[in-house]
Amino acid sequence: MGSHAGATAAGQQQLLAELGVTEEQMGAPVISSMDTVHVGQTEEGVDVYMDRVAWEAGHVLLLNRVKMHTDFDGAVESGLLKMLAVGLGKVEGATSFHRHSLRMGYEAAIRAMGRKLLDTGRILGGIGLVENDRHALARIAAAPAKDLVSLECELLAYSRQLHGRLPFGELDLLIVDEIGKNISGAGMDTKVIGRTVHPDRELTKPAIHIRRIYVRDLTDESGGNANGMGFADVIHERVARKVDFQVTYMNASTALAYRAARMPMYFPTDRAAIEFLLHNLGSPSAATVRAARIRNTLALDNFLASTAAVAELRSRPEFTISSDLVPLEFDEDGELLPGGSFAGDD
Hints:
Layout: H1 9-18, H2 23-26, E1 36-41, E2 47-51, H3 52-57, E3 60-65, H4 80-87, H5 90-104, H6 106-118, E4 123-131, E5 137-144, H7 148-162, E6 170-176, H8 190-193, E7 209-215, E8 234-236, H9 237-242, H10 245-254, H11 258-261, E9 265-267, H12 270-280, E10 291-294, E11 304-305, H13 307-311
Parallel strand pairs: 3-4, 6-7, 6-10, 7-8, 8-9
Antiparallel strand pairs: 1-2, 4-5, 10-11
Helix pairs in contact: 4-6, 5-6
C-alpha cells in the first residue's frame, strides 16, 4: 500500500479490515509490515524495494485492479506493475518511484522497477481485475511473470473503454458531495475532473475543463487523508475539520503531490460556498450556467445538471433525462438538500 493509511503497519491492516480483507474472510493470515528488502538498482539508477515478508515467502502472486492512473497517461498505468513497484515497496518503494518518475516519466519508472523485480524470479505471475463504470467486475485475467506486461497493457486498454466520465467538454461549476482515498488515490479521479497532481505533468488529453469545483465532504473511510482537496477551488468547512494533516502530508510527501494536499478556501455552509462561486463566475443566470452535481467521481451513472448543461445531452440516446426541473434547495442551516437541479428562477 505504499504510504497509505499513515504509512504504518497497524494503519494498513486496519484499512484492509475496513475493506473486508480479514483473516476470517480470507481464510489465511493477513500480515502487515513496513519492513522492506533493498532489491537493488535499475539500470537507470532507481532503487527498488520489496516488502520483507513477501520477499522471504519465496514467491509472490500479484493481484490488483487494472485501471487508468490519476497522474499520467501511458500503456501501463495503475495495475500489476505499479502494485509490484510501489505497493510492495512500501514507503521506500513509493518514495523512490515518485522521485524518479518526475525525472524519467511515470511509465518509464514503473516499467524499470517492475523489470528489476520480475528478474528476481520471485514473482510467479499476476491476476488482473477490470471493473466497469458501475464498479462491477467486468473481466479477470491471469498470466505468468514473463507475460505480465503484455497482460496489463491489454487490460488497461479494455479498462479505458469502460472508464466513467462526465459527458461535458466544459462546465462552469461542479459540485462534488464527497472525496476520499476510497474513491480515488487522488481523492477525486483527475481524469474525471480534468485536473492533475503535478502542474508540470499535465494530462495529455484532458476530457473536460471545469472552471470551478466545490467539495462538500470527506469520506470517513479516508481516515482524515484529505488528498484531493487541493483540486477543489472551494470546500465546505466540514472537510477542513476532518483533515488529519499528519496522514495527509505523509501521503502527499511520498507522492510529491503538494497540489492535491493544499487546503482551499472553505465556507460554513453550502449556500455560502455556492453563492461565492457563482459570484466569482460573474453571476451567470440559472438559464445559462453550465453546472453539475455528483456524489463522487466514482458515481457518474446518475448526476444532476443545469438546464444549459443538459441541453447538449438531449440528442444523445444513451442518456435518460428527467423532465422534472427542481431548483437547488437548502435547509434552514444553508445546507443542500438531496436532489434538485440548477433550473428555476435566478
